[in-house]
Prior knowledge:
Radius of gyration: 31 Å
Oligomer: single chain
Helix content: 10-25%
Number of domains: 4
Distance between the termini: 76 Å
Largest sheet: 8 strands, antiparallel
Structural class: mainly beta
Shape: elongated
CATH topology of the largest domain: Jelly Rolls
Number of helices: 9
Number of strands: 48
Strand content: 25-35%
CATH superfamily of the largest domain: Exo-inulinase, domain 1
Amino acid sequence: MTEGRSEGKRRVWGPHGPFSTRALLLPAVLLVMAVSARGQTLPLPPRPVGAPSGTQFINLITPLALTEREHWIYAQVISGNVPDFLRVLVPIHVNAVIGGTAHTATFYAAPDYVAIGTDADYFLEPMTPLLAQRLCDRLGCTPPTRKMVNQIWTNAAVKLNPQPIPPSGAMITVPVFADHNTMVWTQRATFTSSFPLGALVSGDKKDVVISTLIYSNLHSGVPKPVVIYGWHYTSGDPIQPLYNGHEETYADYSHGLRLVQNAMTVDGAPNTVTNVLTSPILAALLSDEGPTESTTSGLIRVPRYTVAPVAPTIITQPRTQAVLPGASASFQLLAAGDSPITCQWRLNGASIFGATNATLAFTNLQLAQAGGYTVVLTNVAGAATSRVAFLRVNTNLHALSFGDNLDGNSSADWSLFWGAADGLPDYTADWAFDYGATPYTFNGVTGVIPPAPNSPDGSTKGLRLTVNNNDANAATAAVNVYPKGQWFSGDFAVKFDMWINYPGSAGGINSTGSTEHAIFGLNHLGTQVNWAAPAVASSDGVWFAVDGEGGTSEDYRGYRGNLSGLPTDLTALGAGASGMSASNNNAAIYQNLFPASGFETAGSPGKNWVEVELRQTNNVLSWLLDGTLVAQRPNTAFTSGNIMLGYMDLFSSIANPPEDAFVLFDNLRVEDLRPRVGSLTVAAGDGQVRLLLAAVVGQTWQMQTSTNLMDWSPLSTLTASNAPLGFIVADGPNLGPRFYRAHLVGGCETKK
């Protein structure tokens, strides 16, 4: 049956904004050059590290409206997130006698329809003709004609049997797209041993095609249609005749874009598909349209869809980063819009002279370069400004007592305790959770969580915790984790990166359910759950709590444990006793710390990475967020112990949607803040590396080395007979970049 008949009526989407005709890809610089007629690969960059798989991409775009969904599809394709097998084009040889003259030609078609992901996990992606045309323009391609679709089917090594899904209103939704993708994947797998991926495939989709019917023989109420054709049975008969009854923003599960390289050969000479289709002499090579389509000799005078210009749209924002002095870093983003697009980077709101490239790169970073960076993208249709990304240069380094970057499954090295008002274990602890393909919404725009500030580009694994959303019982709940075998005393600091996610938009609007708090503490026994439960038999340590979206009586909280019962809510004691700057997100300190330029809910740390520090010095506890002191108080109750990370829900309601409520922890480390003496310097001499240590005669020091500031190896133990104490690193120039420290044997001082 034809598409128009099988669906019963034309489905018209509501008005949607146009997508770009040509687009700028940031940061990947993709130069589309004139492609030789013998070129047989798509001009795409390598697949980015950490790009979403097909399954992950389905999850990401499922809730998106059409316009935003097609922005994401475009960005993934142009950035190179397509399977390897789709990159190599297949030659299709054709011939025709036109006006008594024989002609031969070769065009090059993708082996299958446009897909997102990898060879092992790809998603055949339906799209509107507007997106199809933009992708073709960007890649030097064109959709095929009806005749070309037939020629592709004839040459296909794999002829699949079409698998229609019964028509319904859901056939234009991503879940149905995904169902059909699974059906096609399963059928294609039966041919893989004989015809590996990359062999020419047909029969799995209808084609979005080029036709005279884009502009003629229009249906009433459809002034700008999509033209579709094909989906051949194995007999060679197409399910779908040439049809232009749907408007140009329509796409259902059965539609696909077959990329055909515009460059081709005709009679052994370079030519283009566009030129052939507009030539009365050559059009019949690639087109069989005639009087029925209001043309003659296959001629298609306008062989493309008309697409409107669009202002720049930022798909992936630049990310906040924390680096060491002297390090290199770069800010990058992914954007789409009509070319030419100009870029202007800004630091703390002021334009940076000469910073007009897609990527802003730094070398030998110094403290003066720290600050908030944005980029403004501009074209003839408008402008877009990125969210603020902070660059922090960490000059306050200390020796590491403990660290876990949480990239691997270190659950065996941690103790976990949970609590719940109903006695049921309602929590999740996902170790080495890959958050890089996890979608979130920011002011109604979907993004994916970027690497944490202290992680390198492409590193997106950490610890994910949830509570009170695994069952239908709405009960207060909590979960804690403590590193096994750890005990800290004296002066030390606990540091980590934290992302609090919450459902809804700013302030949690347009969602229902509870506001949940990330919790973290120090000086715990590490043997029980600690949280602000309605009734507990025992608690210990000192910990702090913060929610992501504000709106509670105490968005910022502090607690002191009680070995005989409920913890003390320090925040409720008032600023003088608790040491808290303020407890509500509308306080000036939090509004300035978490402005709307970088945080969806101003004054709250949700939906963005935040650097957290808990510090104990001389029995004074301090809590810092992004380097700003938000709480400080004397402490005599719990002065040593383990550290804790956790998550708690103080409200007996379930977040909705539940998958949007979680906390991420990454790059945990405990630093030794004990006093240091003198300095440790490195000097080069005689081709050797010499460590010069300010020391007291008679002191014994152990020299240590590390490549990651976490794992330290002893080099030698020396007793100072003079000052400074000198040590030569054996083969130092050939060891590569590394860190050194000296530890006072029998004392507490560490130099680094």
